[in-house]
């Protein structure tokens, strides 16, 4: 019998190895050439926002923030010769930008953008040159959903938010999930600034341990606020509403202490004047138990000691 030689010829083996190496090189070069996605930062409309930019610190730093677009590379903020240079700054950014000057020597060129507008959304470029070299980085600014207000009036719960872009969607949920369908009515209004205000009210099933969640989302972000439906209180789960409720009582927190606590913090209270009057007359169920109120007050008193 004749034994067949099953070994592959050397030239075929070499060709396969060469082809495999070529494929690996092509894949590696392709991935190397693909640009990495720009990092994103979410900013709230009409709030301040920090656009990060780090570099290796060195002497003679020149920092230039710009906003690339089809209309050109408009200047957002410039810094050189040890000071801000805003002569070429785009008009729409005037009075709204600043660097953290005492951090530049540490390699921090982050830009603080104040009073964020819808038109600010987009791509930003940070160029830095110094004695250590040159660096260029990009970041995308997205407009986030603004603060959500949620409150309870009797058996009706209302959730709302203002100044949103683009057009948002609002959804309700409960924890634990409710077997009864949540009957809600949602309205969306577009303002003259092309922003959107959204509000939704629902009448849900009673339950001492039922937690309602209101979620507002756009194509790029999402925010959720919760409210626990209880017997002794009908307030938002947020601390700001709780402080406002305690302020209405005026039995535990004096006015000067409230001013001290709130001096550097933005609190929003969902009580309008008619609701305040109703709360003071006891028509709304916001009378917290004295023990709970006292504990909360003591907690804020401790916080004030550090402020």
Automatic annotation (TrEMBL):
Membrane association type: Single-pass type I membrane protein
Family matches, as PROSITE patterns: IG_LIKE
GO cellular component, one term: external side of plasma membrane
Alphabetical keyword list: Cell membrane, Disulfide bond, Glycoprotein, Immunoglobulin domain, Membrane, Receptor, Signal, Transmembrane, Transmembrane helix
Domain spans labelled Ig-like: 51-146, 153-232
Transmembrane stretches, start-end: 12-34
InterPro entries in the record: BTN3A2-like_Ig-C, Ig-like_dom, Ig-like_dom_sf, Ig-like_fold, Ig_V-set, T-cell_Activation_Regulation
SUPFAM superfamilies: Immunoglobulin
Compartment(s) of residence: Cell membrane
One Pfam assignment: C2-set_3
Gene3D superfamilies hit by this protein: Immunoglobulins
GO biological process: cell surface receptor signaling pathway; cellular response to lipopolysaccharide; immune response; negative regulation of T cell proliferation; positive regulation of T cell proliferation; T cell costimulation
PANTHER family: BUTYROPHILIN SUBFAMILY 2 MEMBER A2-LIKE-RELATED (PTHR25466:SF14), T-LYMPHOCYTE ACTIVATION ANTIGEN (PTHR25466)
Protein name: Ig-like domain-containing protein
